[in-house]
Amino acid sequence: MFSGKPQGKRPSHRTILLLLLLQTRPSKQRTTTFRFLNRCLRNRTIPMASSIFTHCHYSSSPSSLAFRLHRHPFHVPPTCLRFSFLHSSPASSHVDPLAAMVTESSAKVIDGKAVAKQIRDEITAEVSKMREAIGVIPGLAVILVGDRKDSATYVRNKKKACESVGINSLEANLPEDSTEEEVLNYISGYNEDPSVHGILVQLPLPSHMNEQNILNAVRIEKDVDGFHPLNIGRLAMRGREPLFVPCTPKGCIELLHRYSVSIKGKRAVVIGRSNIVGMPAALLLQREDATVSVVHSRTSNPEEMTRQADIIIAAVGQANMVKGSWIKPGAVIIDVGINPVEDASSPRGYKLVGDVCYEEAMKVASAVTPVPGGVGPMTIAMLLQNTLISAKRMHNFE
Amino acid sequence: MFSGKPQGKRPSHRTILLLLLLQTRPSKQRTTTFRFLNRCLRNRTIPMASSIFTHCHYSSSPSSLAFRLHRHPFHVPPTCLRFSFLHSSPASSHVDPLAAMVTESSAKVIDGKAVAKQIRDEITAEVSKMREAIGVIPGLAVILVGDRKDSATYVRNKKKACESVGINSLEANLPEDSTEEEVLNYISGYNEDPSVHGILVQLPLPSHMNEQNILNAVRIEKDVDGFHPLNIGRLAMRGREPLFVPCTPKGCIELLHRYSVSIKGKRAVVIGRSNIVGMPAALLLQREDATVSVVHSRTSNPEEMTRQADIIIAAVGQANMVKGSWIKPGAVIIDVGINPVEDASSPRGYKLVGDVCYEEAMKVASAVTPVPGGVGPMTIAMLLQNTLISAKRMHNFE
């Protein structure tokens, strides 16, 4: 039996059955049959077999079938099959799997680095405007406990970013073996300090500390990470406004906005349900009137689910988990994953890849964030933005 | 053209195409063809037309096609088509639309009234145990502002329910024109009163009052409604525990548990995203490892989405919105809607119906909650449970 999987994409049931039906038609009549069938499918009506099979005809040569599958299986103007997320509709989306077979589009790259730069420039302008107007400089305090190399790098980058936009950055480096109380003391100090508008505790904390106690100690008005349950609750509730939106999911949505991807009424699938990314991302998409499904480790059919999405936010931390076959043609993909994989050709011996197989995604999707250079730079930009928002709010500065 | 809609159920694309393909086979060979095609579909492989259409044959008589659609379109033992949510799997679920056509099963009725009674009995036992052990009686305070008939009825029912299980009920009836401050005074009074373990503000409040200010004034330890953003935030976050779970969604999940409906890994669709039911219900289902999608007014294809669900929670407040064609055969349906519709035969001139068309659901689903007598009685039972939980927590009573 011949297995029809062009470029690793698996045809949908509808496609398989449609192709088989079309096989029963003489090639000249396939275009009209295809359109006729699509009309029936849209109206959900069952035509009389007689109205289609005026006479039957099929190919008995596998090679010729294979050939017709890889090229245009029948003559239909590609335009009527090609799919764009900007004009998606239930009807048109039905045609996607076929579109996947007959189009070879290459997706747009969503340049997070460029957008983040743009946002930092905007923040720089606002910070100096604020300083000149009321003499206030936004301040961000970062607490780092222990000596994890990656954490140290993140903190250093945040510090650099603050300086680049004119935000004051304070830093507390505590030893690995410090007590919860010592950390809490620093937090209450920053809670009281009027020059501090944002407090950030670098995670993960040493295992002997209670992360909840420590995060809950941060004054909600200074919780620029937006991880406080009260913030999350307000994010989930209609008619409520969170003080801060968590930086990474906020960055994902900002990318969609800056690339004018319409969210309202679109099918969105969030892969992963972490408190830091997946869950708040789903809440944000829902606030923007997307129809949201959350796919996670217990989901029985993640591929089938994900293939329905116009917008995919992948945040699971599994290298290249989302293949081309998971993606609906024309979908927009925000890849939050940053996974190191072995790479002999690289001096470091490894390279960073996302949760989505980039090469395959580029063939099926309409827009994709690269890794690195996609969501990564946005996270820090959003942290700066939250710090600015906090300073403005505390000083009633518009 | 004949439109194949047995009992208002609309066939899926897969069904339409499958039936058409089967029409091309002599009736004797349809069972084998059907199984063969299903195998291909499961494996997502495209068979050679030649391997199916050894020769073509179809009916040219509309009446005979119609006949075969309404009865068994081809001879397959019904057992291999019948579907049960207890053994659902991606593979078996593919067969549903056909099962919908060839089986005439009647769903199990989920008796919320009986379950609520059972829970009230359990609470009664615990309340008296607590009273005997530490002499504490749980107390619920209800604040009613204005003279809405429906609100008055709800409050009266809650009062009755409290008495029935031995919980003290306090009540404050304020006039329609009372000020926000007066309401806030009552709340702070109850906040301080050690004999009050739960405070409930009956909604809706008069339009001149700020609902948020008033609800936020209730001490979170006594927020038995569970509507406080901090509670909702904890509900949304993994590894966090809310103090209280909102009563109606809690009741929905409790019904699933008491009828031992497995939730983990199942597809769940929540219709409606209100702060009071839809949103927290979705969060609860996700906490139980369901794969959750939220359908709302902006969803472009609510029917298609809902038809994928193993578990449906409908909470939109639209009479009979969910038709049989929206339901996957074997799905479990929790209907939160309570909608009055004209009914000449009833002395009151109207009757109450849910968001789901009960008669149609009973033909397709495996279990359905009736309206009334489904979720309704559970809501009050959960309110009593939350009040008991609160009293136990405040007095460290296990």
UniProtKB/TrEMBL annotation, chains A, B:
Recorded catalytic activity of this chain's protein: (6R)-5,10-methenyltetrahydrofolate + H2O = (6R)-10-formyltetrahydrofolate + H(+); (6R)-5,10-methylene-5,6,7,8-tetrahydrofolate + NADP(+) = (6R)-5,10-methenyltetrahydrofolate + NADPH
Protein name: Methenyltetrahydrofolate cyclohydrolase
Task of the protein: Catalyzes the oxidation of 5,10-methylenetetrahydrofolate to 5,10-methenyltetrahydrofolate and then the hydrolysis of 5,10-methenyltetrahydrofolate to 10-formyltetrahydrofolate.
Signal peptide: 1-29
GO MF, any single term: methylenetetrahydrofolate dehydrogenase (NADP+) activity
Assembly behavior: Homodimer.
Annotated keywords: Hydrolase, Multifunctional enzyme, NADP, One-carbon metabolism, Oxidoreductase, Photorespiration, Signal
Family: Belongs to the tetrahydrofolate dehydrogenase/cyclohydrolase family.
GO annotation terms (biological process): photorespiration; tetrahydrofolate interconversion
Keyword Protein transport: no
Associated pathway: One-carbon metabolism; tetrahydrofolate interconversion
Organism phylogeny: Eukaryota, Viridiplantae, Streptophyta, Embryophyta, Tracheophyta
